[in-house]
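In response to reviewer comment 3 from the previous cycle, which asked for concrete evidence that the modeling workflow produces usable outputs, we include below a single protein chain processed end to end. The sequence was submitted unchanged, and the resulting structure tokens are shown without manual editing.
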Amino acid sequence: MQQRMRREHGIGSRKISISVSTDDLAIISARAKRLHRGNVSAVVHEMVATLKREEAAEEVLRMLEGERITDSEMQAIRRELATPKVIQAPRRRRAT
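The workflow returned the following structure tokens.
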């Protein structure tokens, strides 16, 4: 008998059927195995969370009447945010 995975309280789900290319399925399955013990639904949840963030960012731009950010600009922002900033402590003078 297969053990059922428990969901967090308040998270409902519905079963759906989707079609993806063989290459895309391989990527999704590999990520599921690597990060979620094979749970493909968790990968789909990740993708939806990313879409929600992108939609929220677009809504903010619409509210501020800004232009849409291109994919290359978004990648540059992500790289900048992911790069750790090295903050050097001020040098102390030696007592003479």
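The helical segments are 22-36, 40-63, 71-82. We consider this sufficient to address the reviewer's concern, and the full set will be provided in the supplementary archive.
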